[in-house]
Amino acid sequence: MHEDSSYAVIVVTHNHAGTLASCLDAAFALEPPFDEIIVVDNASTDGSAEIADTRSDSGLRLIRESTNTGFAAAVNRGLTETTAPWALLLNPDCAASPGFVAEMLSAARHRPEFDEIGAITGRLIRSADRVLEPSAIIDAAGMIVDSSGRHFDRGAGEPDDGRYSNPAWVFGGTGAATLFRRSALIDIAYPDGQILAESLFAYREDAELAWRLQWRGWRCLYTPDAIAVHGRFFQPEGGRRGHTLINRLSVRNRFLLRIHCADLGWHLRCFPWWKMRDLMVIGACLTIERSSLPALAEVWRGRRDATARRRWVLSRRRVPSRRICRWFRKRGQVEEL
Q1: Cis check: omega of the bond before 272, within 30 degrees of 0
Q2: How many domains, in total, are found in the chain?
Q3: Is the dihedral of CA 106, 111, 117, 123 positive or negative?
Q4: Which of 29, 265, 317, 322 shows the greatest Cβ crowding within 10 Å of its Cβ?
Q5: SS3 letters for 153-211?
Q6: pLDDT of 160-199, one tens digit each?
Q7: Quick one: CA dihedral 151, 188, 258, 202, positive or negative?
Q8: What CATH number is associated with residue 55?
Q9: Kind and range of the H or E element at 107?
Q10: 237, 254, 275 — which closes off a domain?
Q11: Whole-structure pTM value
Q12: Are strands 117-127 and 219-230 parallel, antiparallel or unpaired?
């Protein structure tokens, strides 16, 4: 296999025994075959690590963490243990089709902007059951953003009827199944070596990563012929009621990722939409979602670290603010090819 086609697979688990075997079965069927596969288990108690360990004779490397270090830290750990030019981040509730990576790399190589591509994402389909059989519903067709700073899985919950069948440049790719160029990840890594921001722990870390990649001029290509099935247990378009921890992390991280990545130009161009959304979120924390109120205190405590990261991010930007802001003009902004 050509050196530029070699890739590693990184799977982070935390109590995903119900889907992990299906995820790994699909990973071992990928063409071209991966160079390396690493499972980082975040102190699972349901036998997830043992399921991964049964694959050790096939070349899988299992890293067992003694505590739940968070998705971001676990991905960073996996990345440091691999060397391939490309890295596929794959959720343990995601089963990629055999041609998933081949389709993405082929589509990227046919683009004159190949050297600018830092991430490639495919068409994710919702799982119809717990063994990751596909439904007829889109889970994600790339990541999009809006003028309030929110990010969304494009097409989530919509019928898979061909409406997302065109390749496109998108803001970013979901952390569930996206192929990243290692040199791009190294390029945007923080001075402390963090590629994903570990202060976010989990949720929105893929959006923060996408924003940093955009600042450095790295593109994200959506490839509809690269298909994977995602058994998402939490569906954002269905609301967050009953998900206390997710709600708190989501509130905290929406502020942190913006502190990390948004410049003055973004705040001016996207005003008053982000301010209106901020007031709505804070109002909800004070009234109907009081379990998320500690998130605001966590943002305050993390403000110095977040501000230092913003200074570093903005000091290294390669593109003007207006190029970033074009993604936020309206929800669903993409550049179809």
Answers
A1: yes
A2: 2
A3: negative
A4: 317
A5: ECCCCCECCCCCCCCEEECECCCCEEEEEHHHHHHHCCCCCCCCCHHHCCCCHHHHHHH
A6: 999 999 999 999 999 999 999 999 999 999 999 999 999 9
A7: positive
A8: 3.90.550.10
A9: helix 100-109
A10: 237
A11: 0.94
A12: parallel
